[in-house]
Amino acid sequence: MAAGWHRPSEVIGADLLVLTVACGCVAVAARGGGVRAAPGGRRRARTVGTLLVTGPLAAVAVAGLGTGGVLLVGAVSGAVPAWSMPAVAYATGHALAAGAGAATSLVWLGLMRHRIVGTH
């Protein structure tokens, strides 16, 4: 996006496509018995590790989607002066793409929590 090769919608679409394909692969593995619950109970280290991953992802998702949403509403409502519209559109696209990427990662982590995919 920064180089101008991709639009924000393409980046967001790619995130959703990857999530869809990954879910389809896990569904196929589950039909063959290749998905099972993770062994062992909850450990403090595992919980801390989870927080170190999901916390920043959640922050990026909320900040990106929130900032992008506010900028988008401002641009659509006419609150943004015409001379600054290109810069606002650029910032909006980047914020929404970053937020959507983090949000799809959180969805994947939530779906795969306490699951193991593969053979013994």
Task: Please describe what this structure looks like.
By secondary structure, this protein is mainly alpha-helical. It has one domain. The chain has helices at 8-31, 44-77, 85-111; strands spanning 35-37, 115-117. It has a two-stranded antiparallel ribbon. α1 runs parallel beside α3 and α2 runs antiparallel to α3. The chain is elongated.
Beta strands, count? 2
Q: What class would the helix/strand composition place it in? A: mainly alpha
In whole angstroms, the N-to-C terminal distance is 41 Å
Strand order of the largest sheet: 1-2
Number of helices: 3
Compressed to H and E, one letter per element, the order equals: HEHHE
Tally of separate domains? 1
The oligomeric state is single chain
Helix content range: over 70%
Q: How much is the average pLDDT?
A: 87
Low-confidence stretches: none
Largest sheet: 2 strands, antiparallel
Over all CA atoms, what is the radius of gyration? 19 Å
Please name the defining characteristics of this protein.
120 residues; mainly alpha; two-stranded antiparallel ribbon; 2 strands
Question: How does the SSE layout of this entry go?
Answer:
Layout: H1 8-31, E1 35-37, H2 44-77, H3 85-111, E2 115-117
Antiparallel strand pairs: 1-2
